[in-house]
């Protein structure tokens, strides 16, 4: 026997025994879900400017203020850690206050942090402006935003949409990395680049506020791929308490710790390692900074292709096996990197850049799919906590990578250790058990 759907009454209470009634509105040829995805994509592209800058700041700050790479890496690690720790609360806040309000406030905070950084003279000011303010703002613009949009607006093609929105960050990197690198080189000063980041974040705010709707019900339509109208749920009070409660519930399960562990290694080997330290490491081998930054931007080109393709694969294949393949190949490529760095760009380095781009965030769609598979409606918040582990891992390597460079004079040990961690992540992904469907009632 099929269960009668339940809907929300105008007062927010559930009423059993009545089918959901959609407003009498004809579904347009292009479903508004695709417009919501397009606005979210452009928003993430515009906000990607702040994520493109840290690796370009290390040498200019070291030259101007005499700060060690460990000191600069610490501020970046605070940024990355807060980015992750804010994400699960941001997902819950979006349920409480709506996507538009949370994202608009986050972009404004990013602009304030990046803009105030131009006035700093001490390391603690860098930690406060870039580490805390930009970290908190970027955490609210984290991948939980992509998961929320995909889960609310799409009943079909979720993997593909998740891949597209994840790739938006790479698209922004492609746009902003060469621009910011050229700006720093042209003016021989990092401050104009920081101002560019602040202006880019502010420019996106009107786009979000005017065009991004919170739920398909606001358009009077069912989600894309659904046959029945889904009422807009009442605001969920106690966003912070809910985020903590979801964490405590998920922490009692094995899949959560395996997903968190693999994603921590993902963050360590991408944002913490390559995005933060690739440019200064390449410059250690006498490669010009603008060339190294352009290579990092090329990663963004192939990141788009790899992430969208990964979303397509996630709709068709076992997410656990996809993760195992992604991490194993990433680890193998990192083990090769120490011999590839040189003053000029050679074909093997281009091969590394292409592969790393394809693999960069290909892990995101299958990870989101596993969170949704195991934790249902709380999947976006659980993914927020898994993302927190991603950023904590990134923050540790951003800091420890700088410390290792200060201590040993090179990054060789960091590349090899990160490759070994990726091999461990591949094994962890295979250990995740599939969710068992409840037995049918006899």
TrEMBL record:
Transmembrane segments: 33-58, 70-90, 102-121, 127-149, 161-184, 190-212, 255-274, 294-313, 325-343, 349-370, 382-401, 413-432
Subcellular location: Cell membrane
Region feature (Disordered): 1-25
Broad class of where this protein is predominantly found: membrane
Domain of life: Bacteria
Topological type in the membrane: Multi-pass membrane protein
Keywords attached to this entry: Membrane, Transmembrane, Transmembrane helix
Signal peptide: none
Gene3D superfamilies: MFS general substrate transporter like domains (1.20.1250.20)
Short name of one Pfam family: MFS_1
PROSITE patterns, per the entry: MFS
Domain Major facilitator superfamily (MFS) profile residues, every copy: 35-437
Protein name according to UniProt: MFS transporter
